[in-house]
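Researcher: Here's the sequence for the chain we discussed earlier.
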Amino acid sequence: MSKVSFVIPCYRSSKTIGGVVNEIESTMAQLAYEYEIILVNDSSPDDTFAVISALAEADGHITAVDLAKNFGQHAALMAGFHKCSGDIVVCLDDDGQTPADEVGKLLAKIDEGYDVVYASYDTKRQAGWRNLGSWVNSKMTEIMLGKPPELVVNSYFAARRFIVDEMLRYEHCYPYVIGLVLRSTKRICNVPVHH
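Model: Thanks. This is the structure I predict for it:
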């Protein structure tokens, strides 16, 4: 049976991360995979680490990681990658906006033969300035990293283990996970989910 590792950077998420974990657990109970959840506290100033530590203590599927300072989302993901052991790694947000209950769609595309599957949202429920930022980021990624224009990249994705292992070979400061994915494979696709 394949194992799925969920890696979640956590920052100011003491009120939301429990709901995300519950959503993962109820979804995975219906899917034919083993799983683990790696929660990485990115030196959050609230009581996020206390919350994720309690979650880990209560459930053997969960591991809590505490970073000594705030390194940012991509570095927190890399820290989680070092701790996970799954055949497939799924990354998502700590605030509940990435629908963990639709992870089966991403896993199905991995099973079809893709190496990385990014969620694409039917409609994004966020502020207009964030949509503008996403558009600018997408254009820069096309120009600088050769991202196909039709490919949507974001924080909710699934990747095969060898992709994560390839990303872990990057040992410099300030990793850019999307760039590391794009240099590792061309077998990438999108699957629509609800935001």
